[in-house]
Amino acid sequence: MPRTLPALILLLPLVAACVAVDGEGRRPSRIDWALANQGMPPDLASPAHHAALDARARASLEESQGRWGESLDAWTQVLADTPDDVDAALGAARAYHALERLGDAQAVLERAAQHHPQDARLARALGLTQLARGSVDDALSWLRQAADAEPDDAGRTSDLLATLMLTGHTDEAVSRAVAFAPRALPPALRLTLGRAAMLRDHADWAAPALASALDDDPSDIDAWIDLGRAQVLLGAWPAARSALQRALVLDGGRPDALTLLGHAWLQDGRPDEALRSYQAAVDAGASATSLAPLVARARARLGAAEPPP
């Protein structure tokens, strides 16, 4: 079967629409042509334009089957006819990436960006290409442009957030992340950003971020402890105890979890339970000297709570 035949089959509905006549046998009007040609007027419904459509369909088909060289040839043909076509530039860039020709990918995207300097898709693709080439500063510049062009798009911002975290720009990553609901971000980002946010006075964002990450992986002991720590910072003592007890179910010998659990009990008015948790933490390897002030506080509160003989 000729290679272009599948593409032609894909185009049959469009061709049929273009040649159709109505029930009275009249020739389609300009509006009819516009509808049949996806909004294009008659002067664009030319053989050359249909050839470009054929190349586009062929490019998508070859790409879907992993034939990147053939896909690149077809996208290049589309770009020869319509050099400002963003979708074709992105398709060619995907093919170049698959063929490990990152310099060519960058070049085709930069040419498209000259025609569409504000296009967020091109900015994102250029950022990821620069990152793959090791140009971190240029990558961040493009990814910031993509995120700022569509600030409500969590997907585009996620690319930037991941790159900011990988390159040590944690403060900026957290400041951008807290503008989104945690569940709008990928699970791996929720976990790392939740921990970073907790250390930067954003425990109110960190707690739901860590909780949603644990929905995807409830076996992460450290995440349960971090969630408990965030809840302690928020003063949510029952929620803190619940998270820390989940961690201790997974590993009952974690001194950090036992210490935090003691603090949650103490702050919630249960010095007796706090003392038991602190002692368990020492038995598990925590420093008795470091815990001595907390133990003394718990004993003092316990003594104050006991009625005189």
In words, what does this structure look like?
Helices cover 73% and strands 0% of the residues. By secondary structure, it is mostly helical. It has a domain at 220-309: Serine Threonine Protein Phosphatase 5, Tetratricopeptide repeat (Alpha Horseshoe). The radius of gyration is 30 Å and the shape is elongated. The chain starts with a helix and ends with a helix.
Q: What fraction of the residues are assigned to beta strands by DSSP?
A: under 5%
Question: How many strands appear in the DSSP assignment?
Answer: 0
Number of H/I helices: 17
CATH superfamily of the domain at 220-309: Tetratricopeptide repeat domain
Flag low-confidence runs.
1-45
Provide the residue-averaged pLDDT.
84
CATH architecture of the domain at 220-309: Alpha Horseshoe
Please give the CATH class of the domain at 220-309.
Mainly Alpha
Cα-based radius of gyration, to the nearest Å: 30 Å
Order of helical and strand elements: HHHHHHHHHHHHHHHHH
The portion of residues assigned to helices is over 70%
Largest sheet: none
Q: Report, as a whole number of angstroms, the end-to-end distance.
A: 99 Å
